[in-house]
């Protein structure tokens, strides 16, 4: 059995407009990389972290890469130690599922190095513990698609029940990340805890429309379903030029646009790569007109989830 492994786990778009905490999808790039090496004792030690500007802790009980590994080992009663190297390849607090990518890469690597005692999908509860240390809530809409790829619906949290659904082949995602940080914990605290019935009706209509649109390749229906009545109105104020950027995506031909996860990244869906690139550039320009630097990522839906790099 191998003594070390290097794993890539992808960035993700959570919520996907109308599906707060229940929809998520994986993209092809960016993603985090984790190297795990077996130790001769049972210690879990973070040897190095790159790409985080020194912001992340190396305390294994507090870092999102190691907490899922610790819970996984405890649950299987395994006494195996690892040296961990974490390479952050995406900004923290970006709305790209940065903590999830690390959490998934770590526990996926540990499972592989130990001969895959669990199926990938059974690593979800441990990956969610990484989210709990990152933002105080063990939401699954980033970690589930990072772990199994594709577009995932979290049907229920208790008991945990998630389904991966098919997506149209020509569906592309443009994500623009403005150079500002939004802390997921703060972006959850500002949310209203109650909703009135007519908003719930409108939201559930869109959730159903989105699933039907994705499963029947109905791009127009996907676009019509991309209105979030519950969360986006509260969070948009955290993102400068949100309305302008969203409008510029729609004007450039996007099916719809919304906040990626808790933000500040904004994502748009488009039919076709060419339109997605045009939409991405248009969103980028709108931010930059306001003096905000951005990174742009355009990608199909990542159907693979984590990859073994070596
Ligand atoms: N569903 C989570 C939220 C995703 O919106 O708070 C965070 O990336």
Task: Please provide a written account of the structure.
With 310 residues, the chain is of the alpha+beta class. The protein folds into two domains: 4-165, Ribosomal Protein S5, domain 2, CATH 3.30.230.10; 171-300, GHMP kinase, C-terminal domain (Alpha-Beta Plaits), CATH 3.30.70.890. 34% of the residues lie in helices and 26% in strands. It contains ten helices and eleven strands. The chain has helices at 67-75, 98-113, 124-135, 143-148, 184-189, 197-215, 219-224, 232-235, 242-251, 273-289, and strands at 4-14, 23-38, 44-50, 82-87, 151-157, 160-165, 171-178, 256-259, 266-271, 294-300, 307-308. Strands 1, 2, 3, 4, 5, 6 and 11 form a seven-stranded mixed sheet that branches. A four-stranded antiparallel sheet has the order 8-9-7-10. α1 (67-75) packs antiparallel against α3 (124-135), α2 (98-113) packs antiparallel against α3 and α9 packs antiparallel against α10 (273-289). The protein is globular, with a radius of gyration of 19 Å. The model has no long low-confidence stretch (mean pLDDT 97). Residues 14-15, 20-21, 97, 139, 141-142, 184, 187-188, 261-262 line the site of L-homoserine.
Short description:
The protein has helices at residues 67-75, 98-113, 124-135, 143-148, 184-189, 197-215, 219-224, 232-235, 242-251, 273-289, and strands spanning 4-14, 23-38, 44-50, 82-87, 151-157, 160-165, 171-178, 256-259, 266-271, 294-300, 307-308. With 310 residues, it is an alpha+beta fold. The radius of gyration is 19 Å and the shape is globular.
Keyword list:
310 residues; alpha+beta; Ribosomal Protein S5, domain 2; Alpha-Beta Plaits; seven-stranded mixed sheet; 26% strand; binds L-homoserine
């Amino acid at each position: 059995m191998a003594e070390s492994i290097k794993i890539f786990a992808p960035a993700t778009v959570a919520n996907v407009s109308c599906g707060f905490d229940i929809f998520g999808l994986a993209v092809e790039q960016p993603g985090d990389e984790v190297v795990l090496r077996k130790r001769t004792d049972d210690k879990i030690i973070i040897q190095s972290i790159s790409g985080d500007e020194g912001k992340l802790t190396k305390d294994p009980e507090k870092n999102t890469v190691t907490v899922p590994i610790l819970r996984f080992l405890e649950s299987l009663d395994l006494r195996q130690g690892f040296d961990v190297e974490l390479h952050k390849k995406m900004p923290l607090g970006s709305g790209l599922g940065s903590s999830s990518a690390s959490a998934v890469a770590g526990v996926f690597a540990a499972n592989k190095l130990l001969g895959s005692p669990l199926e990938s999908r059974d690593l979800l509860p441990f990956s969610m513990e990484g989210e709990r240390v990152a933002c105080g809530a063990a939401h699954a809409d980033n970690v589930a698609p990072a772990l199994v790829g594709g577009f995932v619906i979290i049907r229920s949290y208790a008991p945990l029940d998630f389904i991966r659904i098919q997506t149209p082949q020509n569906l592309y995602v443009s994500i623009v990340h403005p150079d500002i940080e939004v802390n997921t914990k703060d972006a959850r605290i500002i949310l209203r805890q109650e909703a009135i019935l007519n908003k719930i009706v409108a939201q559930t209509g869109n959730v159903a429309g989105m699933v039907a649109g994705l499963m029947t390749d109905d791009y127009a229906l996907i676009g019509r379903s991309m209105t979030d009545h519950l969360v986006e109105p509260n969070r948009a104020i955290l993102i400068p030029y949100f309305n302008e950027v969203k409008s510029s995506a729609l004007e450039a031909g996007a099916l719809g646009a919304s906040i990626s996860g808790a933000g500040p990244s904004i994502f748009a869906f488009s039919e076709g790569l060419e339109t997605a690139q045009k939409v991405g550039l248009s969103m980028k320009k709108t931010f930059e007109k306001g003096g905000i630097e951005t990174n742009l990522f355009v990608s199909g839906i990542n159907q693979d989830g984590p990859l073994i790099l070596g």
